[in-house]
Amino acid sequence: MQVYLKLYKIFVLLLLLGTSLLICNCDSHNISASSINAVPPDDEAEITYQKTTVFLLPTNYDNLDALLKEGDIAPDFTLFTVDGEPFNLYHELDKGIPILLITGSYSCPFTRRKIPVINELTSSYNQKLTVALVYIVEAHPQDVENLYLTQDSIWIPKENLKKGIAIDMPKTYKERKEVCSVMQDTFSLNPIVLVDNPDNEFWMKYGQAPVMAHLIKPDKTISLRQIKFNSKLLKKRIDLLLGDS
C-alpha cells in the first residue's frame, strides 16, 4: 500500500511539474506573439532628446563601460522598419542565428563611409548572420546643438558641407522615418533597417555613440561590443562565433 502511495505522490509531482512547464512555455510564446504583433509608434509622436554624457572625445567613451559589456544579456526590444514591419530581438534570436546590430544616421559621415562594408557583411554572411542597422539620433544636425559635444554648439562636418547634406534633427517619429528612408534609398542598404523609437529606446539602452556595433549570440549574450564600428575586428569575431556554432 505504501508503495502505491509513493507512486501516486510521484505521479502528482510530475503532473504539477509538467503543468508549470506548459504554463511557462505558453507565457513565453505569448510574449513573443505580442512583440511580433506590436503596433508601430504614432507618426506624430514627438521624439524626446537628452544630452548624453558620452562625447566624441575618445577619453569620454570610457563612460560607456557603465552600460553593456561583452558577456551581458542583450536587452530585448521591438523596433520597426520604415514600412512598419516589427523586429523583436528575442524572437529573432530564437531562430538560432546570431544578430549584428549597428547604429547610424544619415548626417554621420562615418556611417555613410561604412555602408559599403555593412552591405558586404550582410551579403557575405547571408543566412548565417542577421544584420540590422538601427537608425538613431542624428550625429550632425544643422538646426540644433550636437548631442555628442561637451559644449552647446552645432557641428557640421566639412564632408557634409561638401556633399550638400543638411539635415534637421527629426522632431517626430515620421520625420525620423523620412530621413531614414532617404539614406536607405540613397545607399541601397542590404541589412534590415530599423528606426529607433521616439523615446530613443535603443540609443539609451545600448549606448550613446554614433556608430556602435553589438554582436549577439542566439543565447542572448553579447559576444562583441564596439563603441566605434571596426569591420576588421568584427569579421574576426563573427568568423570565430560562426565556427563555434
Structure at a glance:
The protein is an alpha/beta fold.
What does this structure look like?
With 245 residues, the protein is an alpha/beta fold. It has one domain: 3-Layer(aba) Sandwich (Glutaredoxin). It has 7 helices and 7 strands, in the order αββαβαβααβαββα. β6 and β7 (222-226) form a beta hairpin.
Q: What is the share of helical residues?
A: 25-40%
Number of helical regions: 7
What is the CATH fold-level name?
Glutaredoxin
Mean pLDDT: 85
Give the biggest beta sheet: 5 strands, mixed
CATH architecture annotation? 3-Layer(aba) Sandwich
Q: Work out the strand percent.
A: 5-15%
The outline comes out as: globular
Strand order of the largest sheet: 5-4-3-6-7
Give the domain tally: 1
End-to-end C-alpha gap = 52 Å
The CATH class name reads Alpha Beta
Q: Tally of extended strands? A: 7
Structural class: alpha/beta
CATH superfamily: Glutaredoxin
SSE order, as H and E?
HEEHEHEHHEHEEH
Q: What are the low-pLDDT stretches, counting only 5+ consecutive residues below 50?
A: 16-31, 55-59
